Amino acid sequence: MYSDLKYLSTPLPEDILKLKYFGDFDRLISVIDKKLENPSLPIAMRNRLEYEKLITPLWIRAYPHDQEKALQMLRECFGDFSEAELEQLRDDDAVEWAYINGKVHYKNNFLGNLIKTRPQYEARVLDENRLTYKRENAKLLNSIMERMKNEGKLICRFHIRSTMTIDALPGREGQKVYAHLPLPIEYAQVKNFNILSVSHPDAVIAPSDYPQRTICFHDVPDRPFTIEYTYETHMHYVNPDPDKVIDQQPTFYTEEYAPHILFTPYLKALAKEIIGDETNPLLKARKIYDFITTKMIYCYMRPYFTMPNVPEYGASCMKGDCGVQALLFITLCRIAGIPARWQAGLEVSPLDVGSHDWAQFYVAPYGWLFADPSFGGAAWRMGHMDRWNFYFGNLDPFRMPANSEYQHDFYVPYKNHRYDPYDNQDGEAEYEDASVPGPAWHSHHEALKIEY
């Protein structure tokens, strides 16, 4: 399956694109099925069209709000808000939208994204409770950054409970499922992982350093699948000096990996424009980080499976969420000959637990360093320059890294198509013959205790 994902790089025929971007999805599927009946259809195109049939329902679900509903939400949040103002936001590419059946629909979380990234709209919010997390999180991260700088090292201890429940579906009564939940990989900053309890003792736990580490339950889903565990993150503060960078640098993690980490003509031209004549790898990486954090706008994204090339999307649209920004950073670094790799999982702080993606890059003699462009970009937008600089080379300790590789299979192989074939933060579930539909399974991660 993972070798087949490279076919997402195959361009869709123009007639399919016309139907897709107008949102005529019934006709789109009908035309695809007719093309698939052609025995002479090239293998690459056949695979690409089959994937498009899987992508279509994800695309539709990502944009649930029509124009009337979007205006209602905006007026409830900001008070006076005209339809002309919404149209201007569309023209400015400040709200995520798509055509569904020929009519404009907006992404499920477009309003939160507007508040998060546009100060002029944050100032108009009527309910101050909408802003509490953003402000409290900035205070927390600033204080943690100062502690790391002053103490040089910070250890954070976590007690986590992860749970997956699966709804009973007609015709599936008594059938077993494979339920995969993410676990921390014991590498990099993670130490002292310990399992406290498991709801189903025969569950299979991936090896400690498996690139997308999971626990896999296989049973009838008549009760929740649950695991409790503890682990630590050990974070060392680094202030890398370009003058100490040595001439001999490694070449691992500098290759392409279709369909997303590709050295396309546009990305190569962009890397050259960003880096210029710079030859020091630390300074080259810093130029890439600065470009992404100061020139791109943070934007909540539809599922990555709906995007043929995630980094190129970010670089062409000049927007993207944490994963888009991290993948763009990784790809531009690799184009520049700087080793870079994926790290992702959960942000686990005293304020919230949620999915998050970031990156690592390698510069000798420092070894693997961290880069979190989306957290760095948030700091830059808020005018917190110290924290902006901190997230180039460093990372806060509030992380649970479950993924060290992008686009990797599970230890217990997934037989069907995953909801997210690239990453794993919430988990996945499948029957023997089909994936459990996305709306029918629910995962939840709780931080029962955090000490730092």
Structure description:
This protein has helices at residues 14-22, 25-36, 43-62, 67-78, 83-91, 110-117, 119-122, 132-151, 265-275, 281-295, 310-317, 322-335, 373-381, 385-390; strands spanning 65-66, 97-100, 103-106, 153-166, 177-182, 190-198, 204-205, 214-219, 225-236, 297-298, 319-320, 340-348, 353-363, 367-371, 392-393, 399-403, 428-430, 441-451. With 452 residues, the chain is an alpha+beta fold. It has 4 domains: 4-62, no CATH class; 65-126, no CATH class; 151-235 and 413-451, Immunoglobulin-like, CATH 2.60.40; 241-402, C8orf32 fold (Roll), CATH 3.10.620. Strands 15-14-13-12-16 form a 5-stranded antiparallel beta sheet.
How much strand content do the residues show? 15-25%
Structural class: alpha+beta
- The beta-strand count equals 18
Poorly predicted regions are none
CATH topology of the largest domain: C8orf32 fold
Mean pLDDT: 97
Helix content: 25-40%
CATH class of the largest domain: Alpha Beta
- Our count of helices gives 14
Going across the major beta sheet, what is the strand order? 15-14-13-12-16
Q: In angstroms, what separates the terminal alpha carbons?
A: 41 Å
Domain unit count:
4
Major pleated sheet: 5 strands, antiparallel
Going by CATH, the architecture of the largest domain would be Roll
- Shape assignment: globular
Q: Output the radius of gyration.
A: 22 Å
